[in-house]
C-alpha cells in the first residue's frame, strides 16, 4: 500500500500542474476573461511560432548518438505507426462524422512525450534516463507530426487527397520544419547568436501553459460528463491500448531495464496538448480533442501508478 501511495503521489506531482492549467483555462472562459476568438488567435501563435521553437530547441545543441538506441527507436516508431493504423481502421469503420476521425486516430498514437514523458523518465531513473529518453521523444515527436498531418488532411479535406498532396502538407508543417532545422543546425554545428537564442527560449517556454489554458477554455463540461463515443474510445485507446501494445513490442524485441521503462512511461502519457493546437489550426473539432486531453490527463494518474508499480516489482526501476 505504501508503494502504491508513493507512486500515486509521484504521478500526481507530475500531472497536477497540467490539470491546474486546464482548470485555469476553464475558469477564464467561464469568467469571460477569454473567449473562443482569443483561443483561435492564440492557437495560431502557438502553432506557427512558440511550438515550433519549443521543438527546435528540444534537439538544437544536443549531442545525441541516435545509432546507439536503434532497438529502442524501432519499438517506438514501429509501435506508433501500428497504433496509427489501428486508429485509422477503427475510425473509418465506426466514426460516421468524417471530421471526428482524426481525433480518434491521434488519441491512439500521440502521447505527451516531450513534456510529461521526459518528466516521468527522469523522475523514475534520474539523469541517466535523460539522453535515451530525449532521443526517443525527439524521434517520436517527428513521427507524430507527420502522421497528424496525414490523418487531419484525410479527415478535414472534402476532396480526395493524393500522396503528393500529403507530402506537401507534411513539408510545409511548421512543427516538422522546426525539428528538421534543429537536426540540421546540429549537423553543421550552427550557433545561434545569444540574443536570438534567449528570445527563442522565452517564446518556447510559454508554449505548454499557453496551449493548456486554451485547451482548458475549450473543454465543454457538459460534453465531458456526457462523453461522446469518439472521446470515450479515444481515451481508452490512449490509456489502455497504447501501453499494452508498446509493452508487447518491447518484450518481443527483448528490451529491459531503463529502455523498457522509457517505452512504457512514454506510452502512458495523456494525449499531447499539441494535438489540440494542430487540430484547431487545421480547422478540426478542438472541443473533442480538449475533452480527451482532460480525460486522459486524469486517467493517466491511475495508469501511471500501476505501471510504475509493475516496473518497480519487475526490477525495471
From TrEMBL:
GO terms for cellular component: plasma membrane. It is a multi-pass membrane protein. Keywords: Cell membrane, Membrane, Transmembrane, Transmembrane helix, Transport. Pfam families: Mem_trans. It is found in: Cell membrane. The chain crosses the membrane at residues 6-24, 45-61, 73-96, 108-127, 133-152, 173-190, 202-221, 233-252, 258-277, 289-311. Its main location: membrane. GO terms for biological process: transmembrane transport. InterPro entries: Mem_transp_PIN-like, Na+/solute_symporter_sf. Belongs to the auxin efflux carrier (TC 2.A.69) family. This is Permease. It comes from Lonepinella koalarum.
